[in-house]
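Sample 3 of the quickstart, ligand zinc ion:
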Amino acid sequence: MESILAGLIKFRTQDYEEHKNLFCRLKNRQEPHTLFIACSDSRVVPELITKSLPGELFVVRNIANIIPKYHQVPEDLMVSATTAAIEYAVQVLKVKSIIVCGHSNCGGCASIYLPDTVLDNIPNVKKWLELAENVKTRVLDELDSKDDQMKREWLTEQMNIVEQIKHLLTYPFIVEKFNKKELDIVGMYYTIETGEVFIYNAVKGLFELVN
Ligand SMILES: [Zn+2]
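Result:
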């Protein structure tokens, strides 16, 4: 906690002062251009990797950057927290882009392979990860016996991004704007140890390094 308190003071006296005009401009309204959906992982920092300032990104984070398929009446509150944030960003804030950002060494993605004996101790996480069950099925279909765990992780993390974009396209108001080219949807994969970011090329069906 001490480091947090020291950080608050440093922010107020240095960073805030440096961007004082920006914070004053943001006082009454926000107009973020992008809805950024990322994993809750502490090593993924959306504003840092995109060099964005306050007011630019509307950020939604959860374990494994999962997007529940669209439900007009959410089945439970856990699902509605993410769907409500998406709805608000697109319908009220009218963002121009949605980024779904996954990352390397994702504990959430790895957890979908944990046995029930482990997941039963974290029942809420277990329930949440059920939303990515189809990712697990697709990855296991694609892997062959000589593939190692590293390949499985990498494939799961990247396939999960593609799958969550498909889930986004179950939202009627997103499909409408996407078809009218009023909304961009981008899949992004961030590698923690190299700082590299890969963007999904839907035509080629693969992630390409951003240079
Ligand atoms: Zn993660």
